[in-house]
Amino acid sequence: MIRLHKNVALSDSGYVFDPATGESYTLNPIGLEIVQMLRQNMTDDEIQGRILDRYQVDASSLERYYMDFIGSLVQFELADNE
Amino acid sequence: MEKLPFERPFIKKVSTGLPAKFGSKKRIEVIPDIEGIPVSHLMADYGSPLFVLSESTIRKTIREARSAFSTRYPKVQFAWSYKTNYLDAVCRIFHQEGSWAEVVSAFEYEKAILNGVPGTRIIFNGPEKSPSILEKAIMNNSLIHIDHFDELYALMELSRKLERKPRVAIRINLDAGIYPQWDRFGFNFENGEAWEAINRILLSGLFDLAGLHTHIGTYITTPSAYRTATAKLASLMVEIQHKYNHTIGYIDVGGGFASKNTLRGSYLQGYDAAPSFDEYADAITSALINSQIKPEHLPLLILETGRALVDDAGSLLTTVSANKRLSNGHRAVIIDAGVNLLFTAFWYDHNVAPTTMNTDNTEETTIYGPLCMNIDVIRPAVILPPVKKGDHLVIQRVGAYNMTQWLQFISMRPSVVLIDINNKPHIIRKAETVETIRQQEQIPEHLQ
Questions:
Q1: 3-state secondary structure (DSSP) of residue B289
Q2: From the CA atom positions of chain A, what is the Rg in Å?
Q3: B399 touches B391 (CB < 8 A)
């Protein structure tokens, strides 16, 4: 289960600010959707299901890119993999 | 409801810093086709990776270069530098455009002959020429550019043996005010070595000293260096006329003009840093016209430009094999073309363009080739949209040196396609197969 850190600030345009480090980030639109769903405590399967319903992508490719994206969030210390 | 196009999700750290003094172009160029043929069609028909050359661009560039010189000076001759790209189809385009051949080995000499170039229109440069190929060049009345005294004496022997007067020039290295000063080729101007060679040639009576040649370096972005070099050759020509009453027929200023590729570490983009043909032409021709050479003795001006004439015409089409995230979070992609094909990646920051772009989002990406070697880096950092496995990328300005210096290393070399002036593609070099490589090998009986 991926948990986004509670103090991470997120704007509607995809701008991310981490007050713990002072670093800021930008998300592309799909990245923003995923982070918003993480904030709603949705599970990995629920998030990927929602993306599959909305976008032209197969499940295998999505899983690869989703896991890679989650890895980036963890690496930037914006989320924890619990 | 119709589904939306998918873009790989990504997060990018915002980096702040001082902007470049001149600003920088953020817009990413998209290259969906080469000469009107979609990149995806070319790769479907001829495979990936794939080198593609544009005949129109080659012809346009050589005409532009010729025009820059011939509008300033009455006698101009280009000689196609075979080592830059010696695919026969490419050479023949330049020969059709009136270029002679400039070769630097027996292999290249034979190629020029097979391409139908008359021996008298082959300039034979280089530091190593075997007696057998020199003999052939003498019998064909080719222009032999002498590199060192051992070659001079070898030619003397052949001249006596064949009872022929070889048509020769001497290659001269000189201080043109730039660094590095190339001094490994030819005879030095400043220390008198060039005069020593000229004296031996003219006093022997065995040669027709037809020209003087220099080649000051490569990727020279300072036209004034050519002015200095040409002025020195012109002064030598005047002194030879004065001392021996011998008229030198041509001055060959070699090549070395910069292409529009960006050198690694260069602050300015190659497009802004590379001088135009007009700037080179102005420097070289004004040095000749302003010299003490009498108008009736003005020599033929020979140019051996290679890189600047063919770099723009070549593209390398590649496919993304994989996406990776490096240990520091940096994005990397692996493509199916490595430094074994793109030798110039070692010194250029080649422009890499996607074939489609449906997003405003970009990220800094490292582009690795497919070789299992740490040195296989095509671009250490380039701004790209979030590309996915299977996407195509076009690497621009690869026409010079890559199709001659490429290595059959780890994998085989791909096809080369020429798109003609009617936008029709032709294979001009077939992709290698395992059999291409194996047919050169032999297995001793005890290992069979």
A1: helix
A2: 12
A3: no
In contact, B293 and B238? CB cutoff 8 Å: yes
Domain ranges of chain A: 2-81
Q: Does A54 contact B4 at a Cβ distance shorter than 8 Å?
A: yes
Query: Mean pLDDT lowest for which of A12-26, B283-297, B302-316, B333-347?
Result: A12-26
How far, in Å, CA of B19 to CA of B25, rounded?
A: 11
Answer whether residue B26 shows pLDDT above 70: no
Positive/negative CA dihedral, B190, B196, B198, B199? positive
Rounded Cα distance, B114 and B343, in Å: 27
The answer to whether residues B178 and B162 touch, using CB atoms and an 8 Å cutoff, is: no
Q: Which residues pair with B323 in a beta bridge?
A: B333
**Is residue B392 a contact partner of residue B318, using CB atoms and an 8 Å limit?**
yes
State both tokens at B188.
């030095």
Residues of chain B whose beta carbon is less than 8 angstroms from a beta carbon of chain A are 3-14, 323, 325, 329, 359, 361, 386, 388-389
Which residues of chain B make contact with A56, given a CB cutoff of 8 A? Answer: 3-6
CATH number for the domain whose boundaries are A2-81: 1.10.10.10
Give the CATH architecture of domain B56-311: Alpha-Beta Barrel (3.20)
Select the residue of A25, A53, A65 nearest B11 (Cβ to Cβ). Answer: A25
3-state SS class at A76: coil
Answer whether B154's CB lies under 8 Å from B127's CB: no
C-alpha distances in angstroms, A78 versus B127, B166, B411? 62, 76, 41
Q: Strand pairing partners for B213?
A: B171, B252
B215/B265: higher pLDDT = B215
Task: Please report which confidence band the pLDDT of residue B21 belongs to, taking 50, 70 and 90 as the band edges.
Answer: low
Q: What ipTM goes with this model?
A: 0.95
Nearest CA in chain B to A59: B6
Retrieve residue B142's tokens: 């080719």
- Whole-model pTM? 0.90
Architecture in CATH of B33-52+312-432: Beta Barrel (2.40)
